[in-house]
């Protein structure tokens, strides 16, 4: 079984390459096959005129070797290739640690060389380092299909990754499908072997689309199985925390500096109605980025606090929890409220932690804001009237339940910034009532958007500098952490940070953030940016949620054409959170001057629900943006919004399977049970 077969069993993977795969958490053949390409490329048309090539771009040259290669200090150098049709410009190719090429490459023979161009203007030639070598016929075949590009680690090449996948797919009989044939046939899904083959080496967009649909179905199917099997039968509990609106709540409502939006008013009305019921309930507040969910949470919690109950709010990161704490403290001071707010995160240690816990234990009406540290404490917190989970999809069901159990039957409020159509939300949250906040406070100016090409990058940097000089801050988003060997033209955090520091005055402080950092390092960087100790933050999409800096007024998204619409909207939501005018710059790096449809859509509207609908409309079966790179990624909220039809089918089928065999004990469903157990052991569904 590939789930238990070490990657060392794959021909071509030795001790050193095994260690490199382990860095990527790839230990078994199954791990390898479920580490999907992060994107795909097509080999370009063969170039014969070297005067037309661009530095830093991938290119293919069909040329004839002019002389025998020379070998020097472990490298094959300098192989000069000339052709009259190439403008008589020499092409130099260099390979390192590949001594066999000195006998393979012979003068007078013709090959296609493919790699990244490095122009040597003064020397008068074009150079390629470590280019691929193909016969003309083989290269033509490669051009006819999509080529996978993987997320790598230093020392591991894309070529080795591809060859390892190809070798793993040779043993077709070892790939056993866990879905019964009738489910595969009913929904016209490819079998598991075909799915793996087509997601790694798709013949065309249609084949990739079918494979992607199968993977998405599997994600949803096992998610709903796990959700249903682990769902505890909720007993009907009496509501012992029925609040009354008093002077404090009424005075705050009358003292707000700006009127509530219609969405905020409706949400508060729904919440108050819930709180008057005889039994305890839950509610999901689904609000677009910047719709004012924090104020709704504060007012709901205030209603409980002034009635003598504790109110808990759990955020996914320490930075966001601290931001909520400061916001609540500001509200308490602004409205002269006789209540306290307490912060409890992993960073609160020693004497400060003891004092925080003592305040929680001794106080009646109290705002308690924290992270999952609220759950880790063994003690209960007393009479809790309400628990609020912000960015609720970042927590598992068990974590949310654990927070509820810190008190006796508190009211539960979940906050989500991901726009999901109501039909999908009903499937996911079953019978939970939902309040939608689609509008934004009048005090917030609409974000100004623009789409530009790479030639305007210097202008964009000047604009960032101008905003910093006016006391503002900015984000720059890059797709990669480090430079890609396959496509160096794609922006990466490490290179971009160096380039930006060189281009801007030295007094402008540039920070770096990416997902490979330790959690403590990420918290420190985000905290520094929130405290305005950094002016510009160059980051990957790790800032998509969990950071709220009202002083940040610009976000520049590099290679915006590589992101899906929903993700672009979430990234844009990092600005426009204060009173100042904010801007979002989308860098379009597609060839030519054409602007992709998704960039036209995001440029035309700031409405998250419109964006979600456009995302569904624009995504065709072969659209590969947003494909998850690892089989261990599980399902996320964005994926659910993008594939409503598959989600509904998977939910229906999971329900049907459990109706026939609730414990999955029959031989027919043994493969399903085994796979579900593996997924649950690896906590695939912990974020939902």
Question: Summary?
Answer:
The protein has 25 helices and 23 strands. It has 688 residues and is α/β, with parallel strands linked by helices.
Distance between the termini: 29 Å
Q: What is the overall silhouette?
A: globular
Strand order of the largest sheet: 13-14-12-15-16-11-17
Biggest beta sheet attributes: 7 strands, parallel
Tell how many strands the DSSP assignment holds. Answer: 23
Q: How is the quaternary structure best described? A: single chain
- How large is the radius of gyration? 28 Å
Q: Number of DSSP helices?
A: 25
Mean pLDDT: 84
Helix content: 25-40%
Overall description:
- The chain is an alpha/beta fold.
- Helix content is 38%, strand content 17%.
- It has a seven-stranded parallel beta sheet, with helices on both faces. A six-stranded parallel beta sheet has the order 18-23-22-19-21-20, with helices on both faces. A five-stranded mixed beta barrel has the order 3-5-6-8-7.
- It is globular and about 90 Å long.
Q: Can you lay out the helices and strands and say which pair or pack?
A:
Layout (H helix, E strand, L loop, with lengths): L14 H9 L5 H5 L5 E3 L4 E2 L10 E8 L5 E2 L2 E8 L8 E6 L4 H4 L5 E11 L4 E5 L2 E3 L1 H8 L3 E3 L8 H11 L12 H6 L5 H9 L4 H26 L16 H9 L6 H14 L6 E6 L5 H13 L4 E5 L3 H17 L6 E4 L5 H13 L3 E5 L2 H4 L7 E6 L7 H8 L6 E6 L5 H8 L4 E4 L10 E5 L4 H13 L3 E5 L15 H11 L6 E4 L5 H12 L5 E4 L12 E6 L7 H8 L10 E5 L9 H8 L3 H11 L18 H6 L1 H17 L9 H12 L7
Parallel strand pairs: 2-3, 6-8, 11-16, 11-17, 12-14, 12-15, 13-14, 15-16, 18-23, 19-21, 19-22, 20-21, 22-23
Antiparallel strand pairs: 1-10, 3-5, 3-7, 4-5, 5-6, 7-8, 7-9
Helix pairs in contact: 7-8, 8-24, 10-11, 20-22, 21-22
């Amino acid at each position: 079984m590939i789930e238990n077969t070490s990657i060392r069993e794959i021909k071509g993977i030795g001790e050193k390459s095994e260690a490199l795969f382990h860095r990527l958490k790839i230990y078994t053949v199954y791990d390898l096959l479920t580490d999907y390409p992060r994107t795909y490329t097509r080999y370009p048309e063969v170039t014969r005129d070297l005067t037309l090539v661009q530095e830093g771009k991938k290119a293919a040259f069909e040329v004839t070797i002019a002389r025998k290669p020379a070998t020097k200090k472990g490298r094959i150098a300098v192989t000069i290739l000339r052709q009259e049709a190439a403008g008589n410009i020499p092409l130099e190719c260099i390979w390192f640690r590949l001594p066999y090429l000195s006998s393979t490459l012979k003068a007078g023979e013709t090959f296609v060389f493919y790699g990244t161009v490095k122009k040597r203007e003064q020397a008068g030639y074009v150079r390629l380092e470590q280019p691929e070598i193909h016969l003309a016929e083989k290269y033509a075949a490669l051009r006819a299909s999509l080529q996978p590009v993987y997320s790598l680690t230093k020392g591991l090449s894309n070529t080795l990754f591809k060859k390892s996948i190809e070798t793993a797919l040779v043993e077709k009989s070892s790939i056993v499908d866990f879905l019964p044939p009738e489910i595969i046939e009913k929904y016209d899904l490819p079998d598991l072997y075909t799915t793996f083959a087509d997601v790694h080496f798709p013949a065309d967009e249609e084949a990739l689309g079918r494979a992607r649909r199968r993977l998405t179905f599997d994600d949803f199917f096992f998610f709903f199985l796990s959700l249903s099997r682990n769902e505890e039968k909720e007993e009907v509990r009496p509501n012992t925390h029925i609040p009354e609106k008093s002077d404090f709540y009424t005075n705050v409502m009358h003292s707000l500096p700006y009127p509530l939006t219609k969405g905020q008013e409706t949400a508060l009305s729904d919440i108050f109605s819930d709180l008057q019921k005889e039994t305890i309930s839950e509610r999901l507040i689904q609000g677009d980025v910047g719709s004012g969910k924090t104020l709704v949470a504060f007012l709901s919690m205030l209603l409980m606090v002034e009635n003598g109950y504790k109110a808990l709010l759990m955020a996914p990161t320490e930075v966001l929890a601290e931001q909520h704490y400061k916001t609540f403290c500001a509200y308490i001071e602004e409205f002269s409220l006789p209540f306290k707010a307490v912060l409890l995160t992993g960073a609160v240690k020693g004497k400060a932690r003891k004092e925080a816990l003592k305040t929680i234990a001794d106080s009646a009406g109290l705002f308690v804001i924290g992270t999952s540290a609220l759950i880790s404490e063994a003690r209960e917190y007393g009479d809790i009237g309400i628990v609020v989970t912000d960015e609720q999809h970042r927590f598992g069901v068990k974590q949310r339940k654990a927070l509820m159990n810190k008190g006796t039957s508190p009211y539960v409020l979940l906050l989500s910034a991901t726009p999901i159509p109501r039909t999908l939300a009903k499937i996911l949250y079953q019978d939970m009532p939902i309040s939608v906040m689609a509008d934004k406070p009048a005090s917030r100016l609409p974000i100004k958007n623009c789409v530009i090409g790479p030639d305007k990058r210097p202008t964009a940097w000047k604009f960032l500098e101008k905003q910093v000089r006016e006391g503002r801050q900015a984000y720059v988003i890059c797709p990669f952490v480090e430079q890609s060997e396959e496509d160096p033209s794609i922006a990466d955090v490490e290179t971009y940070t160096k380039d930006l520091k060189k281009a801007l005055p030295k007094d402008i402080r540039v920070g770096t953030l990416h997902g490979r950092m330790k959690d403590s390092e990420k918290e420190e960087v985000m905290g520094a940016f929130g405290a305005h100790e950094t002016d510009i933050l160059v980051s990957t999409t790790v800032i998509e949620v969990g950071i709220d800096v009202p002083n940040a007024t610009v976000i520049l998204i590099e290679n915006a054409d590589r992101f899906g619409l929903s993700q672009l909207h979430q990234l844009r939501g990092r600005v426009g959170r204060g009173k100042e005018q904010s801007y979002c710059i989308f860098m379009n790096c597609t060839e030519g001057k054409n602007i992709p449809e998704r960039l036209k859509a995001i440029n035309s509207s700031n409405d998250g629900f419109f964006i979600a609908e456009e995302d569904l409309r624009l995504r065709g079966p072969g659209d590969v943006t947003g494909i998850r790179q690892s089989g261990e990624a599980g399902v996320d909220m964005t994926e659910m919004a993008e594939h409503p039809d598959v989600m509904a089918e998977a939910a229906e089928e999971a329900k049907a399977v459990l109706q026939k065999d609730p414990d999955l004990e029959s031989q027919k469903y043994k493969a399903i049970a085994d796979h579900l157990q593996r997924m649950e052991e690896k906590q695939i569904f912990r974020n939902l």
